[in-house]
Amino acid sequence: VSIAIAGIGIHPFGRFEGVNGLELGAKAVRAALGDAGIEWGDVQFAFGGTLGGAIEGSDESIQADQLVGHLGLSGIPFTNVHNGCATAGSTLALGMAMIESGAYDLGVCVGFDKHPRGHFNATPEQHGLPHWYGDLGMMITTQFFGMKINRYMHDFGITNSTLAKVAAKNFRNGAKNPNAWRRKPWSEEEILESRMLNYPLTQYMFCSPNEGAAAVVLCSEERARQLKDRAIRLRAVTLRTRTWGSFEVFAPWLSVERGHAPTVDAARACFEAAGIAPADVDLAQLQDGEAGAEVMHMSETGLCADGEQEALIQAGETEIGGRLPVNTDGGLIANGEPIGASGMRQVVETVLQLRGDAGERQVPGDPQVGFTQVYGAPGVSCCTILTR
Amino acid sequence: MLTTVHMPTTHRPIADDLFTETADGPRLVGGRCPRCDTVVFPRATGCPKCGSDEVQAHLLSARGTLFTFTTQGFLPKEPYTGPETEETFTGYAVGYVELPGEVMVETRLTEADPARLEIGMEMELVIVPFRTDPDGTEVTMFAFAPLGMSS
Fold first, then answer.
1. Other CB atoms closer than 10 Å to residue B122's CB: what's the count?
2. Which contacts of B55-58 are long-range, i.e. CB under 8 A and separated by 24 or more positions?
3. Residue range A212-235: average pLDDT?
C-alpha cells in the first residue's frame, strides 16, 4: 500500500486575538479539503493533534475532536492525539496505519495550538520531577538548548557565526512566506548582538511559542488518482523516544555513559522504511527551536556528519539555492511554535516544494525527495519522508 | 551573590533528602542500584536502566568536571521561586557537572559569567543561600563552584 497526500491546508502562524484553537484548526482542515477537491462528508476518519491546556495559559481547546462541531457531525472516528512535539507527526503515523490496514482509504490529519507569550513553563509534577527542580530555575527548555549546543560547539568546532547564519537564513526564508509570523530579515550582526538569553544563544536565534494550524488529506494511491494527478507520496513516518544515555530536556541528571539522541533512531528508521538514503534528500525541514538545534539535527538525521555543518552553512549550502536547503519556509524561527501544528507545517511546506508551488521560495531543480524532523520534551522525535 | 545577604535566624534546605552535611563537607544524596551499579540523582526507588526497585541512598562525590553550561538571561516564569524581580534580576548560570564514574548532575553554578566558565574545568559542591521566606527562614540550595572559588 502506498499513501498519498492529496490536500494540504495551513492557517497562518502568529497571534490571532478572539479566535480559538479549534477555529484555527477548522480553517486549516477546510483549506486542505479544498486543495484536495473534496468535502468533509468524504472524510472517513480523522486524527487531531493539540497540546491545548496542557501548556499553561494555552487555549483550552484540548479535545481536537470538537472540530466536528465546526466541520460537520458526520459520525466518523475522530481520535485526539497528544504527544508532545511529535503530536502532528503522530497523527500522520496513525493516519498512515489506518489506510495501510485497508479499512479506510481517505482521512484527515490536523494539528493546532494557541500558546501564550514567552517561554514554555512546565510544572515539575506534570513531568514526574521533584518540585525543587522548578523552584531553582532549572526547568526551562531554553537552558537545555544552550547547554546542548555549547557542548556540541566545543566538541565539533561550530562557531557563533554559524549559529547567526542559520537564524538569518530562516528569517530571510520567512520573509518570502506569506504564512510566516516573523517576516523581517535580520542581519547576522543584529542576531549576534541581540540579548543573550541562554549562552551562547541570543534572542534572535530562538523561536517563540505562538498560534497556528495545519492539516493534510491522506488517501490511498488509488483514491489519489481519482482526486488529483499531482499527489505527493508519504513514504514513511517514524516516531522514536529516548534511549539510555541520550541528553534530554528536563533532566536533573544524565548518565555518564553517553548515548545518542532519539532523532538518530527516528531518522535512521525513516530512511530504512522509505528505502531512501540521506544523500537523496533534496530539501529538509528540521526542528530549529533555536539556531543550534538546526545545526545538531543536520547530523542527527544523517544529512551530514558531526562538524560538517560549519563548512556547509558558511558556504551557504543550506540556503534555498544550496545543495541541501533547510527550513525553506523559515522554520520555527520565522514561524513560531504552536506545538501541535509545528510538524504538520513542515509537511505542508514539503508538499508545496515537491509540487513546485512554493513561489518565491521554491527550491530550484525540480526537487524529488523531502525530509522532515521534529524533536521535543521529554525526548521524542518524529521524522517523515515525502517524494514526488 | 545569589540572594540578598542578611542575618537569618533559621535555615532550611530547598528540599529534604537532597543534600547533607558530612565531616568532609556537603554531599548530594543520590541513589545507587545494587543490581547494575547505575547512579541516579536525586534518589529514586526504581532503576531507569535495569528496572530494579531496590535503589539505595548513595552520597555523591563532591567534586567533578563541568560537562556543559549555559546562562539564564531572563527572569523565569513560575515555577521558579527565586527572590529576584524584573528590576533586580541579573541572571545565573546552570550546567551539568560530571562526577567521575557516577552521574552528571544538573546544577546552578556560583559563577554567572560565561567568560569565567570553561567546559572541563574542575568544580566542587557548595551549599548557598537561595531565597529568604517571609518568616525570615533562609532557604538554601546546592550549587557547584569552580574549584578554588568556593569561598
1. 13
2. B55/B31, B56/B31, B56/B32, B57/B17, B57/B29, B57/B30, B57/B31, B58/B29, B58/B30, B58/B31, B58/B32
3. 92
Chain A: give the shortest CA distance to residue B5, in Å: 18
> What is the amino acid identity at position A102?
G
From residue A230, alpha-carbon distances to A36, A285, B119 in Å are 10, 21, 52
Sign (positive/negative) of CA torsion A48, A53, A58, A62? positive
- Chain B residues with beta carbon closer than 8 angstroms to that of A158: none
Q: What is the pLDDT of residue A55?
A: 66
Of A132, A137, A147, the CB nearest to B68: A147
Q: What is the 3-state secondary structure (H, E, C) of chain B?
A: CCCCCCCCCCEEECCCCCEEEECCEEEEEEEECCCCCCEECCCCCCCCCCCCCCCEEEECCCEEEEEEEEEECCCCCCCCCCCCCCCCCCCEEEEEEEECCCEEEEEEECCCCHHHCCCCCEEEEEEEEEEECCCCCEEEEEEEEECCCCC
Distant-in-sequence, close-in-space partners of A331: CB < 8 Å, separation ≥ 6: A170, A173, A174, A207, A285, A286, A288, A294
Instruction: Calculate mean pLDDT across residues B11-20.
Output: 95
Share of chain A above pLDDT 70, in %: 97
Q: How many CB atoms lie within 10 A of CB B49?
A: 17
Interface of A with B (CB under 8 A): 118-119, 121, 123-124, 130-132, 134-140, 143, 146-148, 150-151, 154, 195-201, 244, 251-256
Query: Distance of alpha carbon B71 from its chain centroid, rounded?
Result: 15
Residue by residue, DSSP assigns A252-302 as SEE-SS----HHHHHHHHHHHHHT--GGG-SEEEE--SBHHHHHHHHHHTT
Instruction: Name the nearest CA neighbour of A9 among A112, A93, A123.
Output: A112
Please check the confidence at residue B149 and state whether its pLDDT lies above 70.
Answer: no
Q: pTM, whole model, 2 decimals? A: 0.93
How far, in Å, CA of A329 to CA of A214, rounded? 14
Q: How far is CA A1 from the centre of its chain?
A: 25
Q: How far is CA A76 from the centre of its chain?
A: 27
In contact, A1 and A235? CB cutoff 8 Å = no
pLDDT tens for residues A3-12?
999 999 999 9
For A128-159, the pLDDT digits (tens) are 899 999 999 999 999 999 999 999 999 999 99
Q: How far is it, in rounded angstroms, from Cα A224 to Cα A237?
A: 19
- Mind telling me how many Å the CA of A330 is from chain B's nearest CA? 25
All three cell numbers of A193:
548582538
Strand (E) or helix (H) holding A347 = helix A339-355
SS (H, E, C) A195-221: CEEECCEEHHHECCECEEEEEEEEEEH
Q: What pLDDT score does B151 carry?
A: 46
